Amino acid sequence: xxxxxxVTNKKKIAFPIAARYNYALKYFxxxxxxxxxxxxxxxxxxxxxxxxxxxxxxxxxxxKTTLGSMIEALECGADTLLMLFGTCRLGxxxxxxxxILRDLGYHFDFINMAEYTTGKxxxxxxxxxxxxxxxxxxxxxxxGYEMLKMxxxxxxxxxIYYRNCGFEVEKGSYKKALDQFWTDMNKASAKGExxxxxQRVKSAFHEIPLKKEEPIRVGVIGEYFTVxxxxxxxxxxxxxxxxxxEVHRWMNISHRNLHYxxxxxxxxxxxxxxxxxMGPTSTANIWCARDYAxxxxxxxxxxxxxxxxxxxxxxxxxxNISSDYKLPILYLTYDSQTSDTGLMxxxxxxxxxxxxxxxxxx
Length: 362
Prior knowledge:
Layout: E1 12-14, H1 22-32, E2 36-37, H2 45-54, H3 61-75, E3 80-83, H4 90-103, E4 109-112, H5 121-131, H6 137-164, H7 173-187, H8 191-207, E5 216-222, H9 224-228, H10 236-242, E6 245-248, H11 253-258, H12 263-270, H13 282-294, E7 299-305, H14 309-313, H15 315-325, E8 329-334, H16 340-361
Parallel strand pairs: 1-2, 1-3, 3-4, 5-6, 5-7, 7-8
Helix pairs in contact: 1-6, 1-7, 2-3, 6-7, 6-8, 7-8, 12-13, 13-15
């Protein structure tokens, strides 16, 4: 006798691919909300092409990639899409993306966090209940804390990886350990499994022999989404590490959101450079650039998507930092036509300049 299929009322929830943070969101949805998280494929050129096809020409590249990622999620079976809020044009993108998807004929529930951004806990609870009507508050709260801990682990491990993987004695050792960590985070279904995966990769990193002598240190700053997402920046950090660069990137969720000192506190150190707020991550990027300069870094790379007004606005300030500290800065702008070959050409030239400069000042 054929086995009857099991019918569930679980929502199938998805979020655009954003760096590696989807693993943490998947954990919260599956374990805390007891719904089903739909993990669409990692973004590829196909994702960008799909998003570009249905996007207005004038929007930034993150709009196109996230739209393409949403379409892939819907094609994978998602019936509920979650879009986070933003303090730049991203705050309006959710409405436009929703309308585009509906015009294409997709049927789904769209949860736009911009509608609930009041700063009041009860409004955020409304979002949670919309995703999980039969919410177990205690279970969701515990899973929420565990999700945030996973985010912190993801940021910490990536920091360690990009600072050291370019100096491993046996090539590929760091990447192997990191890939296992991603697998562990993706499969985690309990707090203990998150901790075990974290401890496993930390132990593996510690055992990898390194050969690092006076490395070239480069700080990467820039627009929130593009600077963190390896597809959007064409694996910028990995390319630098492969050249033998110690790569530092302050901008991540842990630093910018979970443990952020606040605009006013950061402005204390840059008030001679910036008197007014210039945009979502402007203060943090100016502060970070000066911090890298004061710590004797060899160079800075500024990353932004085409048309990102706040990041365009801070470029003159960055030029002042470059002039004051005699610190080279490479400006990279990404759009849907940016090529891997063109990026490599600029990075290689930048590296050669930093290398020669380091020899002169040694």
